[in-house]
Design goal:
Blueprint lengths: L11 H20 L3 H14 L3 E2 H6 L9 E6 L3 E6 L10 E6 L4 E12 L2 E9 L12 E8 L5 E6 L19 H4 L3 H4 L7 E4 L14 H14 L9 E7 L4 E3 L5 E4 L2 H15 L8 E6 L16 H12 L5 H9 L2 E4 L3 E2 L21 E4 L3 E2 L10 H13 L4 E3 L9 E2 L3 H4 L5 E6 L1 E2 L7 E4 H17 L1
Parallel strand pairs: 1-2, 4-13, 4-14, 14-20, 15-21, 16-18
Antiparallel strand pairs: 2-3, 3-13, 5-6, 5-10, 6-9, 7-8, 7-10, 11-12, 12-22, 16-20, 17-19
Length: 463
């Protein structure tokens, strides 16, 4: 069943609100290129909307009550926000869950070296990438360096117009005959994704330093600008991402091109929906997690106990904690796993099954299941829950579509949905379709961003 294009239904008021949401979203993309930066911006916007730290509230011995708005952060990379409802928390919550990590290049712990008068930083790619897409582009460095005395130094290089950019070289076409004959997965190898950061040698060095004069000059610049030494790379988290701001895309300005839209497009619209909630009957939650691109592992991924522990803290602050009530609160909850879907691309039509594909401009996407081949790694939502979500979207005039992730046996992918489902809660994947997913620059439709925002608001109200 072909779904209608959302653009054809918009009034002038709709268009004004759509552009307002798109403007806020572009800003979020530009200020949040790492997980830490995302969390900083999320906390800022949450506090402006009246949210307070759950930990601070607990330290003061202040009990939670209906109407309170609190957030809790884990290791500066994962956050849960709660708007306490009137209903007993053990009856469940309405939860929006997205991830804020994106494919990128991470600087290694011992990265700096010089080779024939050129200085480089060694990298290790993060998440699923086509490595050849990440060369010959202006790149930026974001992250933190923590010195041995505990001082945290924030680093951003390559985003300001006056900043230098960083770069990964590629072999010139004139000498690339053998390279061009390789499989796409081998055209650029992971160990060749090293960042070119300097070529000017430092003068007047002692003899034992002259062989690495360019490297020494880079270290001098880093020390002057940030007060760090080479050894401080050992305790650094530095990410290499495409330089430049998210931009309107298309002559009609109907799309957004930018880095990290998987999954920040769903993360931000989920956040915006929660921040605009008014006195919910059922507690509303927005959970934004890390490490999804590498399996949701670690202390800040969905597989950690962060979410479960934060719900326990909320119950405790309400004066209602017990292990049984915690289990009931999780089991009785309803969640949208707010994650992106593959947008149908006519240039690569052979990878898609048209009846079951997501199309730009036709609204938010429901993926009943994801996974690979025989639905491996998928949650596969219950039909009754799919019907309930459909009704919510229809009741609130939300444009939505359903899709699978490409043709059977062509590939596949997964989300956090199956992890949340381990609590026995109802979960379905619901997000925005993306073109060029996992590329340095991805494309989304403003209409789909707007419909996701509307869908998430409706879900929090009526799920």
């Amino acid at each position: 069943m072909e779904r209608p294009n959302a653009w054809l239904s918009y009034s002038e008021a709709d268009m004004n609100q759509l552009e307002d949401v798109a403007k806020k979203y572009r800003h979020f993309l530009n200020v949040g290129k790492t997980e830490r930066e995302c969390i900083t911006q999320i906390v800022k916007e949450a506090e402006e909307a009246g949210y307070v730290s759950l930990e601070e509230k607990m330290k003061k011995g202040e009990a939670l009550k209906a109407g309170d708005k609190v957030y809790t952060v884990g290791m500066k990379k994962i956050i849960a926000l709660y708007h306490i409802g009137e209903d007993d928390l053990a009856e469940g919550m309405n939860i929006l869950c997205a991830h804020i990590d994106s494919p990128r290049l991470d600087i290694k712990q011992n990265p700096l070296y010089e080779d024939t008068d050129l200085a480089y930083l060694d990298t290790h790619y993060y998440g699923g990438v086509k490595k050849y897409q990440w060369v010959a582009l202006p790149m930026a460095m974001h992250g933190v360096i923590v010195k041995k005395d505990g001082t945290v130094v924030n680093v951003t290089i390559g985003e300001d117009e006056e900043d230098p950019v960083l770069y990964i070289t590629d072999l010139l076409i004139h000498l690339a005959g053998q390279q061009m004959a390789k499989k796409a997965s081998e055209v650029v190898e992971g160990e060749k994704l090293d960042i070119l950061i300097g070529s000017r040698p430092l003068a007047d060095l002692p003899d034992d330093k002259k062989k690495e004069a360019v490297k020494e000059n880079v270290l001098r610049i880093l020390n002057e600008k940030y007060g760090v030494e080479e050894e401080d790379f050992l305790s650094a988290e530095l990410e290499i991402v495409p330089a430049g701001k998210a931009r309107d895309c298309g002559l009609d300005r109907s799309m957004i091109a930018g880095y990290g839209q998987d999954d920040r497009v769903c993360a931000y619209t989920s956040l915006l929906a929660l921040l605009e909630m008014k006195a919910p009957k059922r507690t509303s939650c927005c959970l934004l997690v890390d490490k999804e691109e590498i399996g949701s592992v670690g202390a800040t991924g969905m597989q950690s106990r962060f979410f479960e522990n934060s719900v326990a803290d909320v119950l405790d602050a309400l004066g209602q904690y017990s292990d049984l009530r915690l289990r009931k609160a999780l089991k009785n909850s309803s969640m949208l796993s707010s994650d992106v879907s593959a947008g149908y691309d006519p240039a690569f039509a052979e990878a898609f099954e048209k009846k079951n594909s997501a199309y730009l401009g036709r609204g938010i996407v429901l993926n009943k299941f994801t996974g690979a081949r025989g639905k491996s790694g998928s949650n596969d939502a219950n039909a009754e829950y799919v019907a309930r979500v459909r009704k919510i979207f229809n009741d609130h005039n939300v444009f939505f579509q359903t899709a699978e992730l490409g043709k059977v046996d062509v590939g596949g992918g997964g989300t956090i949905a199956y992890i949340a489902a381990l609590y026995e809660m109802e979960v379905i994947d619901s997000g925005v379709s993306v073109l060029s997913m996992h590329a340095p620059w991805e494309v989304t439709s403003k209409a789909d961003v707007y419909e996701a925002y509307k869908a998430y608001k409706a879900f929090l109200l009526d799920a």
